[in-house]
Write the structure tokens for this entry.
Amino acid sequence: MVLTESPTVGIPRPAGDAGSGHLLGAADVHRLADDLGIVPTKKLGQNFVIDPGTVRRIVRTAHVGQGDRVLEIGPGLGSLTLALLEAGCHVTAVEIDPRLGTRLPDTVRRFMPDRAADLTVLVRDGMLLTAEDLDEDADGTGIVPELTLVANLPYNIATPLVLTLLSRMPHLTRFTVMVQKEVADRMAAGPGGRSYGAPSVKLAWYGTATRTGSIGRNVFWPAPNVDSALVSFARLHDETGRREDEGLRERVFRLIDAAFGQRRKTLRHALRGLVPPETFQDCGIDDTRRGETLSIDEFIALASRGEADDETDDR
């Protein structure tokens, strides 16, 4: 359900005409929450940013600006939304709470009226979002513009949400998200590290994630009991086309889940029944290693070779 509509839609703007207005401070956030009868809930992962400097920093880190198409999941009261609009972005904000989603367009018209036409609000669960929901080919050209995710994500669903969006939206080429510090560590971890796990490898299937900053607790209301960090991601341009092979992705992810489901076991035991013993030798991978030492390319090699072996057996 698209909730925003404005008589100024379609009016051209000069290049570089970023919005001017007022970003939300602590008093604004508290006032908006009081007006709506909102009490932040842990269930919905609601920790509202009350510091304008922080949301501007997120926008700078994301390298988004005039004319960029941005997806924001969980805009809440609109702190980051306003900063994105201020930078000149076209924002689609997806909010699960109907009270917040319905109020967001009014907040933008009040605090940044000259950018209100560049906001679309969808009231729905971000985990259920599809490319079709965004109507990216509204002009009928068949060309889908690149999309960047910029968001303060609910910490309890951050990793599955990112992986789900990447799998459903090939035109989602970048993201910068604020997440719990430990989640950020896992997203950006490399093979052999303590934080390296199944989410790390699965994200690496799509591209490269990097930790790009730390966020203090005092910029939120209510202040969380965990530290936060920024993670930036760039989708891998795979000329081989392997990353577009859904069947291969499913096989790779199956191996990842098996390898990390039994972290203490060697590959020989953890992947028994999934990878023939000779496949390890063919791929140059020691089967006494553990899954936490394998890169995404090594998981891909095992999955690809296993498929080739299966085809040979079928013949």
The chain has two domains: 26-235, 242-314. Confidence is low (pLDDT under 50) at residues 1-19, 311-315. The first strand starts at residue 48 and ends at 49.
